[in-house]
Design brief:
The structure is a single chain. This protein has about 325 residues and is α+β, with helices and mostly antiparallel strands. It contains 8 helices and 14 strands. The strands form 4 sheets. Strands 1, 4, 11, 12 and 13 form a 5-stranded mixed sheet that branches. The protein is flat, with a radius of gyration of 26 Å. The termini are far apart.
Amino acid sequence: MNPTRAQIHIDRPLTDMSIAYTQNAADFIAGRLFPTRPVTKQSDKYFVYAANTFMRDDAKLRGPGDESAKTGFNLSTDTYFCDKYSLGEMIAYDDIANADEPLNLENDAAEVVTHGLLIRRERLMAAACFASSVWGLTVDGTATARWDDYMSSDPIRAVDAAKKIIRLNGARDANKLVLGMDVFLALKEHPDIVDRVKYTSAESIAENVIARYLGVDEVLVAKALVDTASEGAAAASVDFALSSKSALLVHAPASVGVKTPSAAVQFAWTGAPHLPRPNGLALRKFDVEAKQALVVEGDITCDFKITGSGLGVFFANIVG
């Protein structure tokens, strides 16, 4: 009698292949949109000069023996508070020892924890900054021509108008544009952009091309995903972490310092010397002998703070 297939081959996991739907680090834009200000204390204050302090024309004619016209400035303070969010995974020593190749449970846990923290930061930024009520101006897509209405809309002129408002509000030029995924896809096909590209270049319409024709330094597409269903739920509930139908134009410098305006700032608590959190995010591992297990955990401690509401224009639901 010939041996059966089950007798001549025992299924084993492939050692050079596995499937994991990891997200690209570049898809998370919260750490790239606004400047990060590392801080040594979880909360503190910072000074704010009135927006028109350096725009007033207070000088007057001065006659012989007259005093100079007097001026001044208004100064206030604002505060930040870096909440701490934590996530961890415990792995039994026995599971680590018994795992088949190519599994590396310690590395897998670190990736899962890191993804979770990046998703949390993305959603914190979205709640604080990618919204209608926080900026000096919101352009409501329900009240204007949406950018996927190719017959009626003019996104280049709309962005130019927003740039003018930002310049008037803060004496700075808009330099970054965040596009929800649906907005990006609509702009890639918009005739106003397609027609300009086809007569000047053979390159495909990507973020850098849209940035060039909209006149900003950088276009960031919000691609990060979040599953809001509970772990173990029968069905996933996956959506974009930022609204896919909205956009945000801002002035955001590479870094902030004294008298440096920015639409918003990410304050990042670096933590105590014995528990450093570079840029507000830290990953660590430690043994729990009582449970015969290894814990991989991380923290993110940050606060996305609108520091110049006039330096941003939000396009809400700008595609249908």
